[in-house]
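Batch 3, record 17
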Amino acid sequence: DIQLTQSPSFLSASVGDRVTITCRASQGINNYLAWYQQKPGKAPKLVIYAASTLQSGVPSRFSGSGSGTDFTLTISSLQPEDFATYYCQQVNTNLITFGQGTRLEIK
Amino acid sequence: QAELMESGGGLVKPGGSLRLSCAASGFSFSDYYMTWIRQAPGKGLEWVSYISSGSSIIYYADSVKGRFTISRDNAKKSLYLQMNSLRAEDTAVYYCARDSRFDAFDLWGQGTMLTVSA
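Prediction for the assembled complex:
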C-alpha cells in the first residue's frame, strides 16, 4: 500500500500568515492527490484535487502543487475560518489512503 | 442541492452486525462511484470501501475485507454498508462520499456513529 506522510502534524500560525503543508507519498502517484479541510464535528470538505485544481467555491488563497511523490498545500494569507485539520488523500492501484492530518491552530 | 445522508449507526456488541445506509438526493446518483470512509474518535480518516456506478467494481480496505459488504441501489439512490463480525476497532463515524471522477471526494454526508462495545 502507498503511505502518505504529512508534515508538520501540528502547525501554529497567525491570521495573515502564509503556510505550507507537505504530503509525501511512499511511491509515485502521478498527480492523483487531493486535499481536504475538516473542522471539529464536521465532515471533510474537498479543497484541492488532481494535486493543483481548486475545488469550486474554495477561496483562491488555497493552492496545491507537486507531482510524483511530493505535494504541497499552501494557504497564502490565513483567515480565521482556515484554522482546521487538513488531510491529503491518494488513489492508486484501487486502494485509497489518507495522510495522518495536519492540525492548523491559531497562534 | 446535492446531499448525502447516512443512517443506521448505533451501539453494537462485539461480533454483532449492522447495516449503514446513505441516501442521495439532488444529483444523478447512478452516474457516480461512491465510497465509505470512517474516522475513529480523535483519529484521522480511513477509507473503507468503494463501489462503481454499476456495482461491477468493488474494493475494500484490508481492515474490513471479508467482514464488510458495500452495495447500492441506484433506483432508490442509496448506498449501503453491511458490517458483520464487528470489533471494537470498528468504532468510528462513518461517512459516505461521492467520487468526483478525479479520484477525490467532492460531496460528503454528515456521518453516522458506530460504537462497538460490550
